[in-house]
Structure formats: structure tokens, C-alpha cells
Write a structure and sequence with these properties.
By secondary structure, this protein is of the alpha/beta class. Helix content is about 30%, strand content about 25%. The strands form 2 sheets. The chain has an 8-stranded mixed β-sheet with strand order 5-4-3-2-1-12-13-14, sandwiched between helices. Strands 8-7-6-9-11-10 form a 6-stranded mixed β-sheet, sandwiched between helices. It is globular, with a radius of gyration of 19 Å.
């Protein structure tokens, strides 16, 4: 345990830190600077470790990655696993049978560390983004998911049209024992991914785990995000930021970064200014 940290800063990846396929030099410098200030640096993403490795260099300035929306937590760069959560085969079977009655298309991801691999079921409701994701992971996917012989899984992803809010609400209302989180597709920016996890899996629960692990209950916390699956972590921290073109609303609850800026660097500057102000007034 490291009680020396005097704060924790968390950033979403896609659409927040990673924009148009790149991470700005200003954002990277700002994250490097947090280490010198004794701030714990966390990247919280919906990506698997396999996918995160494709866009984060080995020397990327972070201390932890919260992966698959909270299903896994690994140290960085050592990639030591400190938390992993999944669903039992029986649980997966029941969820899949329910989803098949809805006619939706869905993917069942293997357990960590191979959770980039999935089997999928193509329902009667056709969504182009589903085919897009299958094509992207063609070498890691298998069609014709057999619900009756389901194995344990890390998550189930349902993809629906962006205008089908009722489907998300129906699934949330039915699967009360699971964590069901809405995300906007990073592939087309419109379709809705309904991600189903084990109980109490979220970015917020991942942050709570790290706060407990390092004894950071009394330090100032901040997070920045852009999408619906960031809402729980933004509502958890003391200083919540959202990027100017975020998918989620929130009114005055979140600090909105200026347009066309290095959003993470801006949030870090505001965060550190608040910490310094608090120290000066102590």
C-alpha cells in the first residue's frame, strides 16, 4: 500500500484522452507531471487489455488501468492483475436465453485475460455496428453461440440502434442482479452498446477499489470522461470533468472543458490548482 499519494486523477480513454486516433503531447506531459506531484494516475476504459495495448505505449504515464468498464484492474506498465470479475456459466446461460427472446444481436466475451475473444449470436434485429465490430475482431470471434452450454464470461455486449433507448431500459429493468451499462459505440459514434457485467462492476467501483487499496479516502479526486459509461465515476469524484463534445449531459454537475483544447491537460491544470489552493489555505 502507498499512502504517499495526495490525490487521484482518472481519465477515460476513447473520446477523452484518445481523440481521432491519437493522444496529444500536452495531455501526455500533463500526466507525466502528476507523478512529480504525488498524484495517482488511472486510465478507466471500456477496452480490454488486449485492445488498450494497441494504443498505449509501454512507457505511457499511468499507474493503473481500469479495463472493460471495471471488470479488471491492472498495474501499469507491469500489467499485474489486482482485480478481475466475471459471470458464471449458469448466469451467462440465463442472460443469453433472455436476450434471444428479444431478438437482439449480442457477443459473449471470454474471461480475462482473453476477454477480447468472443462468441456471438446474430438476432433478427440487424444493426450495422454489430457487423462492423465482428469484422474488426474477425480473428478473435466465433459465430453460433450455444446458450445451453454456456461457460463463464467477463461480459456480454448487446448492440442496438442509437434511437432504441427503450431496449436499454428494458434490459436494465430485467437484469437487476447485474451491472448493465450503456456506452456509445466508438466505431460509429451513434449505436448503443449495452454492456452486461457481474454485480457491482463499473468504472466507479474500480476507482473505489483503488481508493481502498491505497487508503486515499481523504484526498481530492478528479475524473474526466465523455460518455454514458463515465457517468458513475464522474458522480463519484470531487471534481468531475467532461469534454466539450461529450455524449452525456449533466448540466452544471460537470466541469466542461473548452472546445478544441487538450481536455485532459486542462482538467489536470484545474485539478492541481485546486489542490495547491487548498494547501495554501490550510
Amino acid at each position: 500500500m502507498n499512502a504517499a499519494y495526495r490525490g487521484i486523477f482518472v481519465s477515460d480513454l476513447d473520446g477523452t484522452l484518445l481523440r481521432n486516433g491519437r493522444i496529444s503531447e500536452a495531455d501526455i506531459r500533463a500526466l507525466h507531471g502528476l507523478k512529480d506531484q504525488g498524484i495517482l494516475r488511472v486510465i478507466a476504459t471500456g477496452r480490454s487489455l488486449f485492445s488498450a495495448r494497441s494504443c498505449l505505449a509501454q512507457d505511457f504515464p499511468a499507474d493503473y488501468l481500469i479495463l472493460s468498464t471495471g471488470s479488471q484492474i491492472v498495474t501499469w506498465p507491469a500489467q499485474e492483475v489486482i482485480r478481475s470479475a466475471g459471470m458464471s456459466g449458469l448466469e451467462v446461460r440465463d442472460i443469453c436465453l433472455f436476450l434471444r427472446t428479444l431478438g437482439v444481436s449480442f457477443m459473449v466475451h471470454e474471461n480475462f485475460p482473453h476477454n477480447h475473444r468472443f462468441a456471438y449470436h446474430r438476432g433478427r434485429i440487424s444493426v450495422e455496428d454489430f457487423d462492423r465490430r465482428v469484422a474488426l475482431y474477425e480473428s478473435h470471434s466465433l459465430e453460433k453461440w450455444d446458450c445451453t452450454n454456456a461457460s463463464a464470461a467477463s461480459q456480454i455486449v448487446v448492440i442496438v440502434d442509437g434511437n432504441d433507448a427503450a431496449m436499454h431500459d428494458h434490459i436494465v429493468g430485467t437484469l437487476k442482479e447485474n451491472s448493465v451499462i450503456r456506452a456509445t459505440s466508438p466505431l460509429d459514434g451513434q449505436s448503443v452498446w449495452i454492456e452486461i457485467f457481474a454485480t457491482d462492476v463499473s468504472k466507479a467501483s474500480g476507482i473505489k477499489h483503488l481508493v481502498d487499496h491505497h487508503g486515499l479516502h481523504k484526498v481530492l479526486s478528479a475524473a474526466i470522461g465523455n460518455d454514458h459509461n463515465d457517468r458513475d465515476m464522474l458522480d463519484l469524484v470531487h471534481m468531475p470533468f467532461k469534454v466539450a463534445d461529450a455524449f452525456l449531459d449533466g448540466g452544471d454537475r460537470y466541469i466542461t472543458t473548452p472546445e478544441n483544447c487538450d481536455a485532459v491537460a486542462f482538467a489536470i491544470a484545474q485539478y492541481m490548482e485546486t489542490i495547491q489552493s487548498g494547501m495554501n489555505n490550510a
